[in-house]
Amino acid sequence: MSEIERTNLDAHVSLCELRYQALERRLEIVESQLGDLHTLVLEIRDSLARLPAGENTRWIQAQAAVIAVLVSVVAWLAARLWT
């Protein structure tokens, strides 16, 4: 918090509004990325469903790896967003 914010309520309110707008933009980006990831996971699931039995083990391992990476990215984004 800057000195002007401590002494001027209008300045504080204006700066808070800017901060909120920045947070909203970040959340919209994260929501969009999560939507894209959801679509990707659904496509992977559908692809696996079309594979003959026995051939999907490799795909399941790949999907597990993708999900682990996605969870890590979401956790990283959340940590950056809230710090």
Defining traits:
single chain, mainly alpha, 88% helix, 83 residues
Helices and strands in order:
Blueprint: H1 3-7, H2 9-50, H3 56-81
Describe this structure in words.
The protein has 83 residues and is mostly helical. The chain has one domain (3-81). It is 88% helix and 0% strand. The chain is built from three helices and no strands. It has helices spanning 3-7, 9-50, 56-81. α2 runs antiparallel to α3. The longest helix is centred in the middle third of the chain and has 42 residues, at 9-50. The mean pLDDT is 85.
Average pLDDT across residues? Answer: 85
Strand percentage: under 5%
Our Rg estimate from Cα atoms comes to 21 Å
List the helices and strands in order. Answer: HHH
Report the helical percentage. Answer: over 70%
Shape: rod-shaped
- What's the domain count? 1
Low-confidence stretches: none
Task: State the major sheet.
Answer: none
Task: Provide the structure class.
Answer: mainly alpha
Report how far apart the termini are: 15 Å
What is the count of helical runs?
A: 3
